[in-house]
Write a structure and sequence with these properties.
The protein is an alpha/beta fold and 341 residues long. It has two domains: 2-138 and 277-337, Periplasmic binding protein-like II (D-Maltodextrin-Binding Protein, domain 2, 3-Layer(aba) Sandwich); 139-275, 3-Layer(aba) Sandwich (D-Maltodextrin-Binding Protein, domain 2), CATH 3.40.190.10. The chain contains twelve helices and ten strands. The protein has helices at 2-23, 62-76, 90-98, 109-117, 170-181, 197-205, 221-228, 239-246, 288-300, 302-308, 316-322, 329-337, and strands at residues 51-55, 81-85, 104-108, 130-146, 161-163, 191-193, 211-216, 232-235, 254-258, 270-282. Strands 1, 2, 3, 4, 5, 6, 7, 8, 9 and 10 form a ten-stranded mixed β-sheet that branches. Helix 2 (62-76) links the parallel strand 1 and strand 2. Helix 1 (2-23) crosses helix 2 (62-76). The two termini are 35 Å apart.
């Protein structure tokens, strides 16, 4: 852990200099520095030397962008020094947090619950130190396939090359659940490609794969580009498949409909599922005061955050309704202040 922290300290200046470029103008982000209504002089002076590793996702994905955007924002506002760390996302973020290599991360609701309860193959024991801060947005499952008439439903993907995200990624876990709900297996029924969204997008353009899965807000720039170019189209789930993913007390998905016209050439609504994207932190390595200030900023400086990343959809009541693991004490303090707890 000390070795990692030393490395992070050495890389801090370089990483923060690159963050503005990484956050660029992709998906509605604002170039340059962070303009907010938070006065850094009023917050946490004791955090000036604290370095927090922030887990995101694979390059080009939404989680990767969010970790860069929020790392810069939190640092600029005096909450400590935050450095975005590229990962495969999903369960890997939870595992790295559990191992002490990340202090906070963006994690989807399914992997968040699996980590805390130890209820998946990735977690041999519960990560009872995981805490939630807020839901940043609810992503919806988007299955992009080659734009031809031979693929109109998930079962048409049998025997085809299909990108399911890197091993341990959120998309990988979604793919397993979705194909199971469709009566299929990623091991036996498709030619699974363990690649992230950037590589999947490139390979679909070049005709090397037949499609890929992703969980993102609507519209998602990768899907927009591929549908506008005529290289891809979205396919949805049946009502029975949606029910299989959303029924029961332990279900982490919710039914969702992608409105017609969300993407070029999409003339009809598409049935799918959605899942909250949660900012998770370690109960001990993120102090109560830091968690409180982060939570407060998320809800009281929402306009500035949405200028940095247009995909944020932040609402305090939605967070409390969607989060299924304990909140950090600092977050509890804020929710109590605004009368929701």
């Amino acid at each position: 852990m000390k070795k990692l922290k030393s490395l992070l300290a050495a890389l801090l200046a370089v990483t923060m200099a690159l963050t503005a470029t990484a956050c660029g103008n992709t998906d509605g982000q604002q170039e340059g520095g962070v303009s907010t209504s938070i006065d850094p002089s009023t917050v946490l002076e004791e955090n000036s030397d604290v370095i927090h590793a922030f887990g995101g996702g694979s390059s080009g994905g939404g989680y990767y962008t969010i970790s860069n955007v929020l790392s810069q924002y939190f640092t600029d506002n005096g909450f400590g020094n935050f450095i975005a760390q590229p990962t495969t996302g999903g369960s890997q973020n939870g595992l790295l947090m559990q191992a002490g290599e990340l202090d906070l991360a963006v994690i989807n609701g399914a992997d968040c619950l699996a980590a805390y309860t130890g209820s998946s193959e990735s977690f041999q024991e519960p990560y009872d130190g995981m805490r939630a801060i807020a839901v940043l947005y609810s992503g919806c499952l988007q299955m992009l396939v080659a734009n031809d008439d031979s693929i109109d439903r998930v079962t048409d993907l049998e025997g085809r090359k299909f990108g399911i995200g890197g091993a341990g990624s959120g998309d990988n876990a979604h793919a397993i659940r979705v194909f199971e709900a469709c009566g299929m297996s990623i091991d036996d029924d498709i030619d699974a490609q363990y690649i992230g969204v950037n590589e999947s997008s490139d390979q679909l353009k070049d005709g090397q794969i037949d499609g890929f899965i992703n969980m993102a807000s609507i519209p998602y720039s990768v899907v927009t580009e591929l549908t506008m170019s005529g290289k891809g189209k979205l396919i949805g789930l049946t009502e029975e498949q949606v029910e299989a993913l959303t029924a029961g007390e332990d279900a982490v998905y919710s039914p969702y409909t992608i409105p017609a016209g969300s993407y070029d050439g999409q003339t009809e609504e598409i049935l799918t599922v959605s899942l909250p994207t949660i900012l998770c932190v370690d109960a001990e390595r993120i102090s109560e005061e830091t968690a409180y200030q982060i939570t407060k900023a998320i809800y009281e400086d929402t306009e500035a955050l949405c200028e940095l990343y247009a995909g944020f959809d932040i609402d305090a009541q939605t967070s409390l309704d969607s989060i299924k693991i304990p909140l950090h004490d600092g977050a509890v303090k804020y929710y109590e202040e605004i009368g929701l707890l």
